[in-house]
Amino acid sequence: MSKRFENLKKIPDQPAARLLAAANAKLKTKLKAPASASVQAVLEELEAAEAPVDILRLLSVSLPPRECVWWACIAGRDVMGPDEKSACLAASEAWVFDPSVENRERLRLVLENESSGDKTAPCATAAYYAPGNLGEGDMSDIAAPVGVVSACCFGMNLKILKVGPPPERCFEVAIDRALDIARGGNGKIELVEETEETTKEGTA
Predict the structure, then answer these.
(1) Distance between CA atoms of 202 and 204, rounded to whole angstroms?
(2) What is the domain extent for residue 115?
(3) Does the pLDDT of residue 1 top 70, yes or no?
(4) Strand partners, 15
(5) Is residue 151 part of a domain?
(6) Is 91 within the bounds of a domain?
(7) For the chain, what is the radius of gyration of the CA atoms?
(8) How far apart, in whole angstroms, are the C-alpha atoms of residue 158 and residue 18?
(9) What CA–CA distances, in Å, run from 6 to 45, 108, 117?
């Protein structure tokens, strides 16, 4: 068994298949594990099958909503250029640190008025729906769209493939961030662009 997927204390002790079904999500890899298999067991099988996209998909439905949004926000920092400002990302991070009614209202306003063209809009969408309903007041009794949080966070992490190192390294960083968050960490594992110097260092 791989120690990479041990001690994921934030991930519910439920079968992976149940978490996927609850988010209306599917894996492309045909699993040998039974329907009762844990998230850890399925992650190990997916790693052996070299299926990083499916690993990300499973992690996106397994992390609790708030932690999942934070995972997406870290990816959002990668996607944003060094001089770019993002109302969506700022509002999402504020909600993660303080999931108050006021910060959720800020998310709603940002999504309505400032999200057009914002590359991190999926972060704000995920954060807004993370409480599990359509909003405050009368909207609180209406469930959020099924799987919207996990789908937005999964998509946000796929976006980092376009901004840095070769895809295999991006996948590993995104996976390790989610695993660190699942263990109770902050997920801040750097995505470092590959340069000629780093390539030489790696082969020295």
Answers:
(1) 6
(2) 83-156
(3) no
(4) 38
(5) yes
(6) yes
(7) 17
(8) 23
(9) 14, 37, 39
Give residue-wise pLDDT tens across range 85-94: 899 999 999 9
CB-based contact 29:36 (threshold 8 Å): no
> How far, CA to CA in Å, does 45 sit from each of 32, 39, 152?
8, 10, 24
Give me the DSSP letters along the chain: --GGG---TTS-SSBHHHHHHHTT---SS---S-TT-BHHHHHHHHHHTT-HHHHHHHHHHHS-HHHHHHHHHHHHHHHS-TT---HHHHHHHHHHH---HHHHHHHHHHHHHT-TT-TTHHHHHHHHHTTSBS-SGGGGGSBPPTTHHHHHHHHHHHGGGGTSS-HHHHHHHHHHHHHHHHTTS------PPP-HHHHHHHH-
Count of domains forming the chain: 1
Which tokens go with 93? 């991070």
- DSSP annotation of 38: B
Q: Is residue 107 part of a domain?
A: yes
Domain assignment present for 36: no
What do you get for the CA distance between the two ends of the chain, in Å? Answer: 31
The per-residue pLDDT for range 30-72, each reduced to its tens digit, is 999 999 999 999 999 999 999 999 999 999 999 999 999 999 9
Amino acid found at 31: L
Q: Which of 70, 64, 73 is nearest to 11 (CA)?
A: 64
**In the structure encoding, which two tokens stand for residue 157, read together?**
């992490």
